[in-house]
Amino acid sequence: MTRERLYLFDTTLRDGQQTPGIDFSVEDKIAIARMLDEFGLDYVEGGYPGANPTDTAFFGRKQTKRARFTAFGMTKRVGISASNDPGLAALLQAQVDAVCFVAKSWDYHVRVALGCTNDENLEAIEASVKAAVGAGREALVDCEHFFDGFKANPDYAIACARTALEAGARWVVLCDTNGGTLPSEVRDIVGKVIAAGIPGENLGIHAHDDTGQAVANSLAAVEAGVRQIQGTLNGIGERCGNANLVSLIPTLMLKPAFADRFEVGISGQALAGIARVSHAFDEILNRAPGEQAPYVGASAFATKAGIHASAIAKEPQTYEHVPPEAVGNRRRVMVSDQGGKANFMAELARRGIDVPRDDSRLDTLITLVKEREARGYAYEGADASFELLACQTLGHVPEFFSVTSFRCMVERRFDANGQLRTVSEAVVKVMIDDEEKMSVAEGNGPVNALDIALRKDLGKFQHEIQDLVLADYKVRILDGGTEAVTRVMIESQDGQGARWRTVGVSNNVIDASFQALMDSIVFKLMKNRQLAGRVAAE
Ligand SMILES: CC(=O)SCCNC(=O)CCNC(=O)[C@H](O)C(C)(C)COP(=O)(O)OP(=O)(O)OC[C@H]1O[C@@H](n2cnc3c(N)ncnc32)[C@H](O)[C@@H]1OP(=O)(O)O
Ligand SMILES: CC(=O)C(=O)O
After folding, report:
1. Residues 491, 511, 366, CA angle at the centre, nearest 5°?
2. Does the beta carbon of 51 lie inside 6 Å of ligand 1?
3. Contact (Cβ atoms closer than 8 angstroms) between residue 47 and residue 55
4. Which of 23, 106, 163, 324 is the most buried (most CB within 10 A)?
5. Distance between first and last Cα of the chain
6. Are 233 and 325 members of one domain?
7. Is the CB of 143 under 6 A from ligand 1?
8. β-strand 402-414 against 435-443: which pairing, if any?
9. What is the pLDDT of residues 215-246, one digit of tens each?
């Protein structure tokens, strides 16, 4: 059976630019456009030439090889001709394949926002599309507020779409601009638009996520007949965002309801890189990837639950709706107080530690983890501390060194220049092969001073920890009041690119930090001897 083609239109660099807190540079835009182009999107909308210097510079040359490079802008203003409209001129000067106009299609907006008549707005749509087509560009028209407009005045909303199409637009995109439309309404209205004679093969959908249903609305529109979907990477966009292409694309390609009927321009191989694309985009935005993001989040194929882990060990698809590898993700079976033997055996096997189900030491390890988690430890996020605990329980961890004492001081005092300063100092004594070493260090705070002192002189092990750096340090207070317990999570990395996480818990933040620091150093020494850390580089 031949499948119908669905076209994917990316507006990360245009609607995504309207996200509070997001501000792309020209270099960001170039990198993102290249990533989208290589991934296989059909259209990459780069922004609004003429609206700001970044976008004008970005549109100075064509930025995609395969995707149709698209400029966005409003229809010509009423009262001036298309050839005299400076905004339209900037759009037509852009080095693009296509121009996407935003046009009013709700008569209320025509009256209030534009302050013109319904007919004048239709004339502006017609003249703008004709100007773009006349300049050799493919024309698209985003019908702003189409669904709200249709509810208020269906004849006028359809007249806007028809005018655009008859003037030569390739696509008329139905926009849920305020994001309040529900999937059943989208399905119903798209059906009525097609019944009114606007072909589905010329229709697109642009959905906002204000009710958390932008993806569902996009899919409902496709089911009702539209053949273009607009969306953004990771769902960024005005207010609550746009339809998330990172959720939509795997659904279109992997779910039989869509995959059997439609094809998109993205290869299966590219789909297997979608998690990487999503994370690379977060990296450009300088934010952490969403752990629970559908398909691509670290938790998307993770389970803590013992009952699930046990079935997954038998057959993974018992608890997986698609294979994680299809979207470049991986299965994670985690150890925590929610886990049973299957979780622990899977996690230990991943670390190269095979232990039989009936080994009583496994029960001891599970009991230890559950008891410690009840006291505040969180091993699912502290892989290295878990591995050390497992090695201690199931085998052996060498005593490389022991800390006989440490002391931290925080003092506010005047320095030699008469400036008031808060100084943190730590003193650590360690025993290595019956020899005691004492190190003193100052730091930005007491934990930093303790870390520097602890790693200052480890005798014969010192050269082994030279490349160890602390990448992240997080403190969490678990109980309120005087019974407060502090959990410290530390992320460490070394020169080989390995990263590992350790945890410490105490009612004293310095003590909790010390435990996590110690675990980090001991893990590094174990890893150097290939006694641990087989998966630390993941
Ligand atoms: C639903 C959407 O996401 S649409 C995209 C929205 N994105 C943006 O607005 C980002 C880029 N925008 C901008 O940088 C600026 O708004 C510009 C450069 C486009 C225009 O700036 P200004 O000329 O200063 O106008 P301003 O932003 O104050 O107001 C928008 C004007 O466009 C008019 N307008 C809005 N939509 C349309 C349209 N589809 N067709 C014609 N004119 C329109 C408004 O009536 C208003 O005109 P007025 O100034 O005569 O009242
Ligand atoms: C065009 C657009 O971004 C909207 O109507 O939401």
Report:
1. 65
2. yes
3. yes
4. 106
5. 42
6. no
7. no
8. unpaired
9. 999 999 999 999 999 999 999 999 999 999 99
